[in-house]
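pasting for ref
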Amino acid sequence: MKFVLSPIAAVLASSVICAHAQDAAPFKATLFGQVVLPTGLKIAGTEFGGISGLDHDAASGLFYAISDDRSERAPARLYTLKLAIDGKGVHGIDIVSSSELRNAEGAAFAKKDVDPEAIRFDASASRVFWSSEGDADSRPAIYEAKPDGSHIRSFAIPEAYLPNADKTRGVRGNLSFESLAISPDGKTLWAGTENALTQDGEKATLEAGSPSRIVGFDIASGTVSAEYVYDNGPIFTKATKDPYYNDNGLSEFLFLGPDELLTIERSFALGIGSEINFYLASFAGATDVKGTASLKDIAAKAMSKRKVLKIGEGDFGLDIDNIESMTWGPEVDGQRTLVIASDNNFSPEQFTQFVVLKLDPATN
């Protein structure tokens, strides 16, 4: 099903507005366009939304998107999409197909037994990798699947990430594997937690950030090859609306070079809105904490990072929503594009948003 831009969105699509880039950014970002889909939209009777992961296959032009519906509205699923992008802007989106994610037994996941969050397409083997924040027992997972969602294998998750009975170890609920990226050499799958493991530290607050872990899995063997600390920043501002919820966490990353990730920290404050911060984070010089039970037991140097872009409410002229997805898009007139997308949480107060940024090399 194809959707074209509304008149308002079409105006935004034709706009070119400089981003709020920080000093020494490797690129200058301009808005190239956006597509917004309303909550409640149904495709073949199933509600579309919850887009928490997005990746682009340059050969086919398709985008693979994953929904974080916990098999509550319909079986857990992935989508293939086509964004109409050319030299003049972004003109619409076509929801090409929907495929159910399958477990090791070949069945659809039971209600609340999965929480899909990130997806990456591996063109070299025509497969996808996807992550789940937690099953019915809050255990995270990372899977390899065919592009139609059928199961190939699951990765063995280190014990440090698995919640124990008294909740003193492992990932926190809804703060687990939000991020996935395939290394440029195609050998390693990297996964990142949104906030600290319980034994590693506290969740992000207004005063302090939270130490996430980024773990690398050797794709061939499925074993852990390395593990690093990524320090999230603090929450950007106080909430002003009851129940005064706010947060900040690592929601996605991509490789910009062999040892450097472009990361998103998505921060939200109820009554204020969202602030989306992009960083360049480097593995160089960071301590490999592979196999460490608790970060409190060691002195570890976290990955270095520097902010390169911020999108707050009104920046680019956007009503920015809950950005959880990021992928490199198609080249436009020889220039790289970055596509980010929001998870609407199936909330009538939110929307599904695909934003395309064009990246020009920095001239400073």
